[in-house]
Amino acid sequence: QLVHGRGDATLHSGTTLDALHALAAGGYVGRTDAAQLGDAYRFLRSMEHRIQLYRLRRTHLVPEDENDLRRLGRSMGLRTEPVAELNKAWRRHASAVRRLHEKLFYRPLLDAVAQLTPGETRLSPRAAGPRLAGLG
């Protein structure tokens, strides 16, 4: 949305999930990638809301205390081993988001920089503008 939204008004959205849908529909992000990002977003927001609702705290920190993690896991429907299941799901989503971030942002930038000649590696701000615009 930040990269392509300036040139494509169909990407302007008030919600993250609508924006992911628009990015997939516009071909900017693969449908599978958008679905994975959406799943991770829903999971992490659910976690965040449950953390904040407990004792009505405005925080974004995942608790470290075993009892708090157990309560959080159970509140998310994890019953057998709530702490282990929560940590496993959290790691799975974090890993997927990290991989997709690299795929969508880091690798294209790295590929573009790798094609520069030695003299092009230092660009003035004026010369950098068109190159960055070309990346989206």
UniProtKB/TrEMBL annotation:
GO terms for cellular component: cytosol. InterPro entries: GlnE, PII_UdlTrfase/GS_AdlTrfase. GO terms for molecular function: [glutamate-ammonia-ligase] adenylyltransferase activity. One of its GO terms (biological process) is regulation of glutamine family amino acid metabolic process. It comes from Streptomyces sp. SID12501. This is Bifunctional glutamine-synthetase adenylyltransferase/deadenyltransferase. Pfam families: GlnD_UR_UTase. The keyword Cell inner membrane does not apply. Residues 13-105 form the PII-uridylyltransferase/Glutamine-synthetase adenylyltransferase domain.
